[in-house]
Specification:
Layout lengths: L1 E2 L6 E2 L72 H15 L5 H18 L4 H42 L5 E2 L4 E2 L6 H6 L3 E3 L5 E5 L4 E7 L2 E15 L1 H10 L7 H9 L9 E13 L2 E2 L5 E14 L2 E10 L4 E7 L6 H4 L8 H16 L6 E4 L3 E4 L5 E3 L10 E9 L5 E7 L7 H15 L3 E10 L2 E9 L5 E8 L5 E8 L4 H10 L4
Antiparallel strand pairs: 1-2, 3-4, 5-6, 5-13, 6-7, 7-8, 8-9, 9-10, 9-11, 11-12, 12-13, 14-15, 16-17, 17-18, 18-22, 19-20, 20-21, 21-22
Helix pairs in contact: 1-2, 1-3, 2-3
Length: 511
């Protein structure tokens, strides 16, 4: 038998390799198997309870106290440095608000550079940069808009000047026998120097040049009672043009419309354009001061001069812009010549025609009783209360009427009209006109619209009532009389002046 010298396994005699570990076998000496190491006997470990013994303290030897330096605790977050461009941009943008944008463009540039730089370097101040960009952009846009508006306004003024110089290059203005120098007269002095009487009802305007006050009497025949008083301002020429088209733009007159009015009349020029602003502060009726709030009336028109038959006349051809009614003033010292001057063959002067129409209207509306409005053709209304002025609606429809009379109440703004339409009509026309007017009210955004069959002046009529957006009422009566004429009677009033509505309804008569 052969034993492996490597692992001690027994092999057959003559084997060359160990059949157990594969090591080459040596021959000649028997190999004794190695003794297996004895396995240690396992014993249960014995635990002993530790004995508690008090610790032995030794008195420390006194040593000199050395100062201890405590290293400051570092923050968990690293310190972030603010970007200088961000701060500078914010400051410049903020200053630009107070300096009308003079530093805003620099604030915008610095803020943008700072924001880009802070992002790259992971620095602070980004919020300031964004705020600077927003403030600068808003300020720059505001400055641009103001500049554009100013430029357009300047261009408009240049256009006005160019248009005016193109429209009129005359060095003189001539009337029938009078030549006026190129220098524009001082119409403010010419107006306030004199007193003026209206051609319609003889009311009387007195100006006081010293303290810029006026007194407007009901009639020039009595200056002791029944008048308004307050302060006035007069504009003329370019100043009047600008005030009318800008400060009074809510009244609806544009520059183009005013230029067209001037072009359409040979007597009208921008030089003699006038605007009289009367700030009413006191009202005296029957010797007693009335409790009223101040109000303003603007009279817009032209100062006209002419000389005919050796007699001179100065006329204020005006429109009451609040009441949309025509009014003509004649100088008091020339008023006695007024009726002599009107008849003329000079048809080139448009204002002469207008004055003639005013005279015809006065003749038609004047009766033995000044409180009666209307005539035998249109019917009449008795004015029982209030202070009434002549009034003419500038709607260009006078040719549609055979007779037309209107009044305006200074106190309550009530307007009334009594008229008869031209032509012949059948019995159904009144209803047809009333229905058409009702439809018109509905399309014009009236509200509280009603239509009913009523009676007025002893005739069966169709009545239409509606209310404007500002609260004023409009009531219209249509009826056909025994001569097949269609009558149109209207009154515009606020609810506080319901008595004027009742006055029209109850006092209208047609003989």
């Amino acid at each position: 038998m052969a034993f492996c010298t490597n692992c001690g396994a027994q092999n057959d005699e003559g084997a060359k390799f160990c059949n157990s570990c594969g090591s080459p076998l040596q021959f000649g000496q028997p190999v004794q198997p190695q003794a297996q190491p004895a396995q240690p006997e396992y014993q249960q470990p014995v635990y002993q309870q530790p004995v508690n013994q008090p610790p032995v303290y030794q008195q420390p030897q006194a040593q000199p106290v050395q100062p201890v330096y405590v290293q400051p605790m570092a923050s968990n977050e690293p310190s972030v440095k603010n970007n200088g461009f961000c701060t500078a941009g914010f400051v410049l943008s903020l200053i630009g608000i107070f300096l009308i944008g003079t530093t805003s463009i620099f604030g915008l540039i610095f803020s943008i550079v700072g924001l880009i730089s802070a992002n790259k370097k992971n620095q602070g101040g980004k919020g300031k940069a964004i705020a600077g960009i927003v403030m600068s952009c808003l300020m720059i846009i505001t400055v641009i808009l103001v500049y554009v508006f100013s430029l357009s306004n300047a261009f408009g003024k240049y256009y006005d000047l160019a248009t005016d110089s193109t429209r009129s290059t005359k060095s003189t203005r001539t009337t029938t026998e009078t030549t006026v120098d190129d220098d524009t007269p001082d119409y403010e002095k010419m107006i306030s120097k004199y007193n003026w009487i209206t051609t319609g009802d003889g009311s009387y305007m007195v100006f006081n040049r010293k303290n810029k006050t006026f007194t407007y009497y009901l009639t020039y025949l009595d200056t002791s009672d029944n008048y308004y008083s307050g302060h006035y301002t007069i504009y003329y020429g370019k100043d009047a043009f600008n005030y009318i088209t800008k400060d009074l733009s809510d009244l609806g007159i544009t520059k183009d419309e005013l230029r067209q009015i001037i072009r359409n009349n040979d007597m009208y020029e921008e030089d003699n354009l006038i605007l009289i602003c009367c700030d009413h502060e006191e009202k005296i009726t029957d010797g007693t001061s009335q409790d009223v709030d101040p109000w303003t009336i603007h009279y817009c028109g032209f100062y006209l001069q002419s000389e005919q038959n050796g007699k001179k006349i100065d006329v204020l051809d005006l429109t009451n812009m609040e009441a949309a009614s025509y009014i003509t003033f004649v100088r008091e010292d020339q008023y006695s010549n007024y009726t002599d001057i009107l008849p003329t063959t000079d048809t080139s002067a448009t204002y002469t025609t207008e004055l003639t129409e005013q005279t015809e209207q006065t003749i038609n509306t004047t009766s033995a009783d000044e409180n009666i409005v209307g005539d035998s053709l249109s019917g009449t209304i008795t004015l029982t209360q209030g202070t009434w002025d002549y009034w003419h609606e500038a709607d260009g429809m006078d040719d549609y009427y055979d007779s037309r009379h209107q009044r305006y109440n200074r106190d309550t703004q009530t307007i009334l009209c009594v008229s008869v339409l031209a032509g012949n009509y059948d019995s159904g026309s009144a209803k047809a006109y009333a229905e058409a007017y009702k439809t018109g009210m509905e399309s014009d955004s009236f509200f509280n619209i009603t239509m009913e069959q009523t009676r007025i002046g002893g005739y069966s009529a169709y009545t239409v009532t509606g209310q404007y957006q500002d609260g004023m009422y409009l009531t219209i009566w249509y009826f056909v009389d025994n001569n097949n004429r269609l009558h149109y009677i209207s009154v515009e009033y606020f609810e506080s002046d319901i008595v004027s509505y009742e006055m029209v309804r109850d006092t209208y008569r047609l003989v």
